[in-house]
Amino acid sequence: PPDIPLANVKAHLTQFQSIANANGGTRAHGRPGYLASANYVRGLLDAAGYTTTLQSFTYNGATGYNVIADWPGGDPNDVLMVGAHLDSVTAGPGINDNGSGSAAILETALEVSRQALQPVKHLRFAWWGAEELGLRGSQFYVNNLPAAERARIKGYLNFDMVGSPNAGYFIYDGDNSDGTGAGPGPAGSAQIERTIQDYFTSIGVPTRGTDFDGRSDYGPFIAVGIPAGGTFTGAEGIKSAAQATLWGGTSGQAFDVCYHRACDTTANINDTALDRNADAIAYAVWTIATAVPPV
Ligand code: PHE
Ligand code: ZN
Ligand code: ZN
Ligand code: ZN
Ligand code: CA
């Protein structure tokens, strides 16, 4: 699997910041900064050879958009999806939440193109609208999938907040190995968790589980039985002393003090966390999408 260039991921964050600055400081659903963000992502994917769709929906009297990008080839009956929400809250530009996940999966998609990857699975990337208003874009996508099309999706990887300034290294707890919180994900989620875990083990970074508590766009996928996984570096939760010992950073302080605030700018990013998570995404995509399924 490739090493995703951090500078490229950060260049996308700079573009999201510029888009917000030019549009009243936000990239929220229904605001011009949202559509500008979608057009930015879509333009790069089109140029890289993806087949893209701008799927529109209505929520709260405003039009929202999902950007869906299919990489040509692979088994159409064995689809791996990779998604991140592209909208911010109205209060700010949403650079960690969720420019970070949006930029990291974008650069992974562009790396697929640069390498002319020919995966066994069919790869589909998605940038969701209106997550901040209740997972509206991802829910609309899943609700409107024909049953046969839904059955082809064998896995969904979600990335929401992967550059938190006081970062933790969380992986969605597909097997509910800690036995607490939400139950396990659909069968197959545990394997996704292990694959992501393998990457962090290889770079010597300890991780912890985070529950499928329904707070991000994997929700509509697991609700229909699609295995899911992904990473998360923390939001408004407070880093404990034990977590600061494990990962460094500041105990007694939120993983992201600028969560849902105007200060969620390009200054609100932990480069090390963003770099490790972008590489983890690429590792998971390459490992899962190029694996030959058992006969
Ligand atoms: N989905 C939340 C948001 O966008 C953040 C979050 C992600 C919380 C993952 C918990 C787990 O605000
Ligand atoms: Zn948010
Ligand atoms: Zn988010
Ligand atoms: Zn687990
Ligand atoms: Ca758990």
Automatic annotation (TrEMBL):
GO terms for biological process: proteolysis. It comes from the Bacteria. GO terms for cellular component: membrane. Keywords: Aminopeptidase, Hydrolase, Metal-binding, Protease, Signal, Zinc. Its EC number is 3.4.11.24. Belongs to the peptidase M28 family. M28A subfamily. It comes from Nonomuraea thailandensis. One of its GO terms (molecular function) is metalloexopeptidase activity. This is Aminopeptidase S.
